[in-house]
Write a sequence for this structure.
């Protein structure tokens, strides 16, 4: 079994959590952020869900780039042009491009 899986969500403070409209079907697997559809609310819901499922085996962080983009993130953007919000798993760029529980869980399981 691996150590802690580090998930980093990168986006803008006022951005949506997905390029798709938030609807009552909750295809993202999260409930509490339904009415807002905002990244910050979705991040909080995702963090709660992942802590419930994985406990301390998953560490989730949010990096907002509104006031500047860290050099390590600039390098990723220049190299890979990932969608925003960007989801990194142990520093590896995924092609998820939205906050969606089942796809993030799949990436975590690859690391455990």
């Amino acid at each position: 079994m691996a150590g802690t899986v580090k998930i980093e969500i990168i986006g803008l403070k006022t951005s949506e959590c997905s390029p798709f409209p938030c609807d009552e079907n909750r295809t993202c697997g999260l409930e509490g952020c339904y009415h807002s559809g905002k990244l910050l609310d979705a991040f909080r819901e995702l963090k709660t869900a992942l802590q419930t499922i994985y406990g301390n085996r998953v560490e989730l962080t949010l990096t907002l780039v509104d006031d500047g983009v860290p050099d390590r993130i600039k390098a990723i953007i220049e190299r890979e042009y990932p969608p925003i919000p960007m989801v990194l798993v142990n520093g590896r760029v995924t092609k998820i491009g939205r906050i969606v529980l089942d796809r993030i869980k799949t990436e975590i399981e690859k690391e455990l």
